[in-house]
Amino acid sequence: MSDNHTNADDAALADDVFKRWAQRPVRFAVGLPSIDDPEVLRALRAETHPWGVPKSSPAEADSDPPPQGENLLARLRPAVVILHQPVGVAAPEDANDQPLLMVLYVREGRRLVGRVLPLDASIGEIFIGRTPDNALVLDDGSVSRRHASLLHGPEGWTLKDLGSTNGTFVNGVRVREALLQDGDRVRVGGVILQGVLDAPRAQRVDEIRAHLETIDVLTDAATAQGLVGRMEAWAQAAGRPEALLVVLDLDGLGAINQKYGELVGDDAIVALAERLRRILPGGVSCARLGGGEFALWRSEPLAGGVAALTEQVMDGVAAEALALQEGRLRASVTAAGTRVLPGAETPEIVLARVREAMRLLKRARTER
Prior knowledge:
This protein has helices at residues 7-22, 38-45, 72-75, 92-97, 201-214, 224-236, 253-260, 262-279, 305-318, 347-367; strands spanning 27-30, 80-82, 100-105, 116-118, 126-129, 136-138, 148-153, 156-161, 168-170, 173-174, 177-179, 185-188, 191-196, 243-250, 285-290, 293-298, 322-323, 328-329, 333-340. It is an alpha+beta fold. The chain starts with 6 loop residues before the first helix and ends with a helix.
């Protein structure tokens, strides 16, 4: 090293590296660790993994690292903006300024549900995919590396599928290209989003979030929370009669996922929900508890009781193949139920007890 080298030269070099690194475009990501996660913070300080994404990431492999130092986190403009707070990620004023996509459903669980993905028309074509080099990152195995794109034009936002493996859908219809309307539901692989394109966006995001607590996006049945709410309303009503609760589960869902893929499994769950709506007697409401598991609730007695309802459901599902988007699938369900008497256990305890009975019955049938 030259004797003329000074600390000022080091500082200038560090500033130059930081400026070049910080000018990379910001990307919005779903499914990545929280920026305040201790592991991520440690990684941000580590020379071997300086900005919280794998070194092997194609987008980062050839880029200069950010300067290291005690002020790194204060100066950091990350290559990936991690949206880790439900719905409220975008401040109300931001939500009012920009149209957005809101995540309604991800197969792996509810942790990503409610995230908002702002759409900035000024950056041109917005790419959607699984890898970090996309503008909108959906970290889900059903999403292709570069799955789809959005481009704003005179008529609005145009969604285009980029030859993805699992397809792009708008309101349940597979599309190659479509002009999005406010409120449209977009499915990218197994991820379901909703376009919130028109104002007032912040208010509508809050309304959608509240709706997600009680309605299952995949099937439009009630959620477990929605079911418990109905059971609690029945329990608090004066002069209530006994009620019925049945829990059922789609047989062989794991094998369907393994043989045909999880998107076909989702399709089978949707088809089962549609079949249940068609065959259930009046006054019986349906809730999806998770996976292929559903609960049926009736807040008053039914002729034949639990046995009649259980038999009707099992026979109705097995009577004909479920109609999937591509083909048909023979299916059956395992079901168990109980009478629910006034003044008995809490709704949560009753539901847990019937779910356990159904699982024991399912295990016994499998072991025969």
